[in-house]
Amino acid sequence: MKYFAKIVIVAFLMLVPTTMMAQENHQRKTNHGQFDPAKFDADLEQFITTEACLTPQEASEFFPVYREMLKKQRMLFEEMRRNHHVDVSNNKACRDAIEKQDKLDIQIKEIQQYYHNKFMKLMPAGKVFKILRAEEKFHRLAFSRAAKRGRGR
Question: Strand runs (DSSP E) across the chain, as ranges?
Fold first, then answer.
């Protein structure tokens, strides 16, 4: 009986560290892979500032207006995402979803146009163009990094 108890204790002591290491490893993987919107926005702003060579004054005038634009666009993107759950066998529901999607696309473009004009009142068009190119480049790079992470899993 004493021999059996010793085996159980040794087995238990060997399993505890292994279990703890597995939990820590799982936490590291899940925390690392999670999307952090605040970090994404901060990285985007830093990238735009660097790529478009914004002065601190330009950045302080530009980014509050830029964030305002993004907030309005994100509301529409959320609405678009709700449209993804349409019964494809229901033609009327699909038609309604397509028409709604088209209207939302137009609204997003109208918001962009409005804010692009607003940006050009803050700084020269050449600088705004650099900002827009930097924003596109950042999103391409972010998408590429996300795709590489997804393949690595």
Answer: none
